[in-house]
Design a protein that fits this description.
Strand 1 and strand 2 (60-67) form a beta hairpin. The longest helix is centred in the N-terminal third of the chain and has 21 residues, at 108-128. Strands 1-2-7-3-8-16 form a 6-stranded mixed β-sheet, with helices on both faces. It starts with 5 loop residues before the first helix and ends with a strand. It has helices at 6-17, 34-47, 108-128, 149-157, 203-222, 267-284, 308-321, 336-341, 365-383, and strands at residues 50-57, 60-67, 76-81, 98-99, 102-104, 131-132, 136-141, 162-165, 174-177, 179-188, 234-242, 252-261, 289-298, 301-302, 328-330, 345-348, 353-354, 362-364, 385-386. It folds into 2 domains: 6-177 and 300-386, Zn peptidases (Aminopeptidase, 3-Layer(aba) Sandwich); 179-298, Alpha-Beta Plaits. It contains 9 helices and 19 strands. Helix 7 (308-321) crosses helix 9. It is of the alpha+beta class.
């Protein structure tokens, strides 16, 4: 019989929220994961887990706690990020207050509630007195909100037979989500005084030709058959920069574009669509100079409904909440894609809440307890027990 120490879990969650772990890649000057990593490391050591801390940069860390199994069973990884987005506009971002069944503060839903549930699940397994046959691996990672250097480092150093990424999913299993590719397109012109039209070449105006064609591609992409869970692919122009002053022809213009990819799409094929636009425009005007640079790519994610970790978790989740929940797909990206790409069967399951990335964020405490219970029961069944 598994029992979740709800008092321990609520206190742990409040303490996690009270630690500022805003991602410095998003908000320069923010503290990163150093302090919260030290705190989590101490909590897991107090439980008796084997703890490793991996330094990824100044104040950027992963913390891994391992509840060692006897060795004859399968291993299960629980993954959650401890970095958060910024707190601009929030009245009391690090309160960790408990009101009306909810914990409030930045990261409460996204995703410190989940990290607390992961640790509480390990505690529940220990409290049960049962010996796992396989390892339970708790990974509290950095930087998911920006470039996922945390989980990228995890898959270089650890593996498991399956994983649960505990992003908030309203206590439903997510089996697919979209990926993304970030592109920079550069247009080259020639600087000249604004009066010297015979000399100047306007890089910004020439970028406009590419943008006009990109608009057509965006409309075509969204008309493609959607993925049954994750929906259609999409793209948008994110940032543009160029020129030096009003009276000077711009010598340079940079455009950044995000292309969201559906499961099954191939990065090289997606990039070729961008390059085809450039090739066509330059064939029409050989003086046009455009350069394409894909500078960050993260793959889409999908797991089959018949994967063992899906079936085991689905059964335990239905028993815990009293009804069968339909599986779904997400339009956003998560670290699940990196784990799946590394050969680890992965699902997403996390608590109920609201306000992630907004001015008031909260997580439902009962759902955090439910999550901890499901994670603990799944560990016992998936990893197996001895004796």
């Amino acid at each position: 019989m598994i029992n979740i120490d709800s008092g321990y879990l609520r206190k742990l969650l409040s303490n996690l929220v009270r630690i500022n772990s805003c991602n410095p890649s998003l908000t320069p000057g923010s503290p990163g994961e150093g302090e919260i990593g030290e705190f989590i490391s101490g909590v897991m050591r107090d439980l008796g887990l084997t703890v490793n801390m991996h330094v990824l940069g100044p104040n950027r860390v992963n913390v891994v706690g391992i509840l060692k199994g006897e060795g004859s069973g399968r291993s299960l990884m629980l993954n959650g990020h401890v970095d958060t987005v910024g707190v601009e506009g929030m009245k009391d971002p690090f309160s960790g207050d408990y009101r009306n069944g909810r914990i409030y503060g930045r990261g409460s839903q996204d995703m410190k509630g989940s990290v607390a549930a992961m640790i509480a699940a390990a505690k529940a397994v220990l409290d049960s007195g049962k010996q796992l046959a396989g390892d339970l691996i708790i990974t509290a990672v950095a930087d998911e909100e920006y470039a996922s250097i945390g989980t990228a480092d995890i898959v270089r150093n650890y593996t498991a037979d399956a994983a649960i990424v505990t992003e908030p999913t309203d206590m439903r299993i997510c089996r697919a989500h979209r990926g993304f590719i970030w592109y920079e397109i550069e247009s080259l012109g020639k600087a000249a005084h604004g009066s010297r039209y015979e000399v100047g070449v306007d890089a910004i105006m020439r970028m406009g030709r590419f943008l006009a064609e990109l608009d057509k591609l965006e409309q075509a992409v969204r008309q493609r058959p959607p993925h049954p869970l994750a929906g259609p692919p999409s793209l948008h122009a994110s940032l543009i920069n160029g020129g030096t002053e009003v009276s000077v022809y711009s010598a340079n213009c940079q455009l950044q574009v995000e292309r969201r990819t559906a499961p099954g799409e191939i990065a090289d094929t997606v990039t070729a669509e961008f390059q085809e636009i450039i090739d066509r425009l330059q064939a029409a005007d050989p003086s046009l100079q455009l350069r394409l640079n894909p500078f960050l790519e993260r793959p889409p994610f999908e797991i089959d409904a018949d994967a063992d970790i899906v079936g085991v978790t689905d059964k335990i989740l239905e028993k815990r909440i009293g009804k069968k929940q339909p599986h779904f797909g997400a339009t956003f990206w998560t670290d699940a894609a990196l784990l799946m790409e590394a050969g680890i069967d992965t699902i997403l399951l996390g608590p109920i809440g609201d306000g992630l990335h907004s001015k008031e964020e909260w997580v439902d405490m009962d759902s955090v307890v439910d999550l901890a219970h499901v994670l603990a029961e799944t560990a016992l069944e998936f990893c197996g027990t001895t004796g």
